[in-house]
What we know:
Elements: E1 5-6, H1 8-18, H2 34-44, E2 47-48, H3 61-67, H4 72-80, E3 92-97, E4 99-104, H5 112-120, H6 122-130, H7 132-144, H8 150-157, H9 174-184, E5 189-193, E6 199-202, H10 204-207, H11 210-213, H12 225-240, E7 242-244, H13 245-251, H14 256-269, E8 272-277, E9 284-287, E10 298-301, H15 312-319, E11 340-346, E12 348-358, E13 363-371, H16 379-393, E14 398-401
Helix pairs in contact: 7-9, 12-13, 12-14, 13-14
Amino acid sequence: xxxxxxxxxxxxxxxxxAQGFAEPRRTGPGPAGSRAVQRVVxxxxxxxxxxxxxxxxxxxxxxxxxxxxxxxxxxDRLRDGPGPRxxxxxxxxxxxGHAASLLPVETWPHLGFRMRRFGEHPARAGFARExxxxxxxxxxxxxxxxxxxxxxxxxxxxxxxxxxxxHWGWNWSLVKQCLEHLFGVGAVTSxxxxxxxxxxxxxxxxxxxxxxxxxxxxxxxxxxxxxxALELVRQSVRAHGVGTEAxxxxxxxxxxxxxxxxxxxxxxxxxxxxxxxxxxxxxxYLDAAARRPRRVQARALLSPFDSLVWERQRTESLFGFRYRxxxxxxxxxxxxxxxxxxxxxxxxxxxxxDLKADRGSxxxxxxxxxxxxxxxxxxxxxxxxxxxxxxxxxxxxxxHWE
Length: 402
């Protein structure tokens, strides 16, 4: 039986629909709320977290891109519950998915293989042996208190261990290193972050529903690595709509040895179909239940960490749009700017814009903007309108073009 073939335009529309861009954004009075935010979570499954705040914290932006103006407090409640120190199960929890990410709590146990490997790494295992006593003290503080930041844990312990000064950008005390070790192995978790972007570390029982906590690494109900691979690959294919093996692997940063058997099993079950996308040199995998819209009329500014574009090779293959983040590039060598957001209009990425929120003056500052050579007529006006909507959502009075 011949392998089904998709045109590039079909693949692009399937991918956009899978990521939530095929539905019209809210235009009624008031911002979108909790149900709309949850629908985005159900689609994308993992939202990358990053500390850069030149525009907005990156995890807020993918929801804006798909919903337009929405209530960010609704997203905070999914992560924090009624409050960051409340002892109530959350809907979202942070762990290493695609980099540091917010994930549905049900996904957390399926990253147990990563937690085990974290602890088995020779350097981590050596750290645990060397600092076993402090690790136990730190863990006891976390398990017997409401969620705490590293500084608050230090205050409880009155710990005066010297901070590390051997790595640029980091200044971690021994207590902070112990907390990150416990977080990495899944012994403690996160109850969100404070306004300074510091993690609040918490006992599993503060954040995870009992049925989810029972599946933590080392517990009787923990999923096997094969079960986790199957579930994560299933989520990845659904979030892509259609993608190559490399795309599927990158979404949760999985190893090939986990992805290939899982893909083969999902194909066998009929949940995934192997297809060929015109112009792609390797086979692709299609979610059998994926929507196949005939047209997509999206308008969105995309965070550099948005799951639609975070895999740069896929972005180029799918949209013909070369995109690189230049935050860490010295300013004289930047081509497009510091914090550059691709602009999605219709079914294409038609331009990019370097943005900054100047909260002191109440302005959304456009430091640089540019369009693809084949951008259709109307793209500049569409971008201007979208910037106005974004400024209003962020509580900024005007858009200022430098």
